[in-house]
Write a structure and sequence with these properties.
CATH topology of the largest domain: Nuclear Transport Factor 2, Chain: A
Strand content: 5-15%
Helix content: 55-70%
Number of helices: 16
CATH class of the largest domain: Alpha Beta
Largest sheet: 3 strands, mixed
Number of domains: 4
Oligomer: single chain
Distance between the termini: 24 Å
């Protein structure tokens, strides 16, 4: 069975929610009748490292055992188990990081997925996939922290990343240590250029980890974790501008709201986005979360603007990986395309020395992009 990408996305998100008894019976029958487009759901999950989460959700909703395809069940279970063991090793790696930095008087602040894992926000060690460990070190301690980690066996993950620590970026390049599964990004600021000022007061909104082994490590308060999650994807990564769907991070947001419901200061969050003039962006973001995961918050509203944004996000998802998707939405992509096809950029790639060479390079580059999207 095949369905369009938007409907497959909505079905995938449905499986991640806590289903009612009636819904469980309904989807159980669809699974038995082979009316679930598993290949499409697997593709969606794979695109955002969410296979372990899909496995966990199917188990919690008592649907996993109804799957008839034994290879599919084995695949889901294997990836989940691998991620469970990997996350155990990441916690050991985190302990190693803390043990290395603690003698220097450096207390790191865990960010994003690292905090999610440390706080066990999913109530399942194997559910959340991590691509790296993000920790914030104050600027005046960053060089000492880096040198201590290098002395402990860490090195740049990519050979080409051997640059200075004075690089004008909000975190240094990823570093890794043999024997541990994850790379580490040492942040000097929580957010990058253009949005770093949005969280200058983060130190007033820190708390200690609830993990028994990391009682001295810092994390953000629930309200600021939500604020950071929103800012990171929608503004720093420009997902709002390009109408992109950061599915894993949207679900993180949902999990955090449900777990820390009584601790979240929605009035403060409203004040923050109002002050920074991004309230409409948050409203559109919350509407998308509501449509995908049925999450209702005190700041969730339904406006024509939010509905239009949701439609465009879904359209971008439908067109993703197609040649049309490369240009959608056109209003946001034009500045990106102008930069990608600039004289200076193409000269580095195609090594021409004349205007005629530039014209030829434009056609070559355009052909390369169209070919990569179609074939």
């Amino acid at each position: 069975m095949m369905m369009n990408r938007k409907n497959a996305l909505l079905l995938f998100c449905t499986f991640l929610k806590s289903l009612s008894k009636k819904e469980v019976l309904e989807y159980r029958q669809k699974i038995i009748d082979d009316k679930i487009p598993w290949l499409q759901l697997i593709a969606i999950a794979n695109s955002d490292y969410m296979i372990p989460l899909l496995y966990m959700a199917l188990q919690k909703n008592c649907l996993y055992d109804d799957i008839l395809d034994e290879q599919l069940k084995e695949y889901l279970y294997t990836i989940y188990t691998f991620n469970y063991e990997r996350n155990k090793q990441i916690l050991q790696q985190l302990d190693d990081l803390v043990s290395t930095l603690s003698p220097l008087g450096i207390t790191p602040l865990l960010l994003k997925g690292s905090a999610v894992l440390c706080e066990n926000d999913y109530d399942d060690l194997g559910a959340r996939s991590l691509t790296d460990i993000d920790i914030l070190i104050k600027e005046d301690a960053l060089k000492n922290a880096f040198n201590a980690l290098v002395a402990n066996g860490y090195h740049f993950t990519r050979e080409e990343d051997k640059r200075t620590l004075t690089k004008d970026f909000h975190h240094i390049e990823p570093i890794s240590k043999e024997g541990y599964p994850s790379s580490v990004e040492l942040h000097r600021t929580i957010l990058g250029k253009g949005v770093s000022t949005y969280m200058l007061d983060y130190e007033q909104h820190m708390t200690k980890s609830t993990h028994k082994d990391f009682a001295d490590i810092n994390i953000l308060t629930p309200t600021y974790r939500l604020y950071h999650a929103f800012l990171h994807t929608e503004l720093q990564d420009a997902d709002y501008k390009f109408k992109r769907l950061a599915l894993r991070h949207l679900f993180d947001f949902t999990v955090l709201v449900k777990k820390y419901e009584q601790e979240i200061d929605w009035k403060l969050l409203d004040q923050l986005v109002t002050k920074k003039e991004c309230k409409e962006i948050l409203e559109d973001y919350l509407y998308v979360v509501n449509q995908l995961f049925s999450l209702q918050t005190p700041l969730t509203t339904t406006t024509k603007r939010a509905q239009r944004h949701y439609r465009m996000v879904c359209k971008e998802f439908e067109l993703r990986n197609s040649w049309l998707g490369y240009f959608y939405p056109l209003s946001a992509q034009i500045p990106k395309l102008l930069q990608a096809y600039s004289y200076k950029k193409l000269q580095k790639i195609h090594s021409f020395n004349s205007y005629n060479g530039y014209i030829i390079a434009i056609f070559k580059h355009f052909y390369f992009h169209i070919k990569s999207k179609i074939f």
